[in-house]
Amino acid sequence: MLRKTLIVLAIASTLTACSNKEADKPKNAASASSATSKAEKQDTAAAPKLIIAPEDIMKVQSNALASGPVVTGSIQPERKADLRAEVSTIVLQVLKENGDVVKRGDVLVRLDETSIRENLNSAEDNARSAALALDQADRALQRLKTLRASGMTSLQALDEAEVKVNAARSELSASRARASTARQQLQRTIVRAPFDGVVSERKVSAGDTAAVGKELVKVIDPTSMRFTGRVSADKIAQVRIGQPVSFRINGYGGQEFRGKVTRVDPAANDVTRQVEVLVAFADSNQPRVSGLYAEGNIESTTVNALTLPEGALVKAGDKSYAWRINGKTLKRVDLNIGKRDQRSGHYEVRSGLAEGDVVMRSPNSSFRDGQAIEMAATPKVDVAIGANLPASTTIASGGN
């Protein structure tokens, strides 16, 4: 009987202890929450008052956000000439080097003209002989016609004289054609610049054999540069002639160039399935070097959206936030960021801010949520800035 009584007492003690622990849980949770809230208040209270100037803040505004297909390619001149040999001979002299500026008509390359000049002299001699032969045959024909009128020659002799005249006339025409061809070949031994430009590539040197069709020099017009790009075939329906294009060129850092679509190729490439698009520069701001890689966007659609510059955003992993001015305090606001505008470099703000909100232009790592702020008065003397500030205040800075 005593044993049963002890067991009942033990069970009752255990249940009482459990009941006391359950009752203590809400008290412990309330104490932890109170401690956390108190710590946050102490942290905010410990943060010094932030003195800001008008240039430290900015107002959130709605701006035009452009988007469209990506275009990649290179910078190429519209006016370019690949000068090749039109006669088979030896290169005597190359007068221009890569990068040399040339004017229209300047001599670039001289070719050996010895054999061509001999052919010209021979053709001209043959033409003169043929002219004399034609003159003699024509006079003989006229004499026979006079004799035939008086019945002193036969009709056959007259016909033979006419045949000789026709043959002499044909020989003269052929000789003149050979002389003209030789004269043209002689002119082609001097290669001249077809327009004002720059020698972009020299292909031969003195002593080389210049066969017909061999590349000699290349000349480009650096003022006629354009963006020769390619667009994916599945995006080509969004491209129209006249659409604005913003792009960057490799070698020109962060400089942005503007242009517009001037031509869309009617056929896609069989291998890459891309369509060529020609983009003309919108102004004289263009590179002077051809072949540079370029990439940008064709602005096929434009919508109004809230945007912020990259410097006003703070990124922490996959999240982004900004510091909004909430009356006399700072408020950390989580943002839903969209795509980046290639033209301005600003990011689309899909949620978290409203038009007209005021945010810090250059957030600082020392900012605290709920921190007190105050607009700085315009100082009369620059040297006095910060000299009389209390120890419990700081000045907003643009660095992180």
TrEMBL record:
Gene3D superfamilies, per database record: 2.40.30.170, 2.40.420.20, 2.40.50.100, Helix hairpin bin
Domain CzcB-like barrel-sandwich hybrid: 81-220
Biased composition (Low complexity): 28-37
Keywords: Coiled coil
Coiled-coil segments on the chain, per record: 120-178
Disordered: annotated segments: 22-44
The CusB-like beta-barrel domain, residue ranges: 234-300
Domain YknX-like C-terminal permuted SH3-like: 305-374
InterPro entries: Beta-barrel_RND_2, BSH_CzcB-like, RND_pump_MFP, YknX-like_C
Tree of life domain: Bacteria
NCBIfam families: RND_mfp
Family: Belongs to the membrane fusion protein (MFP) (TC 8.A.1) family.
PANTHER family membership: HLYD FAMILY OF SECRETION PROTEINS (PTHR30469:SF15), MULTIDRUG RESISTANCE PROTEIN MDTA (PTHR30469)
Descriptive protein name: Efflux RND transporter periplasmic adaptor subunit
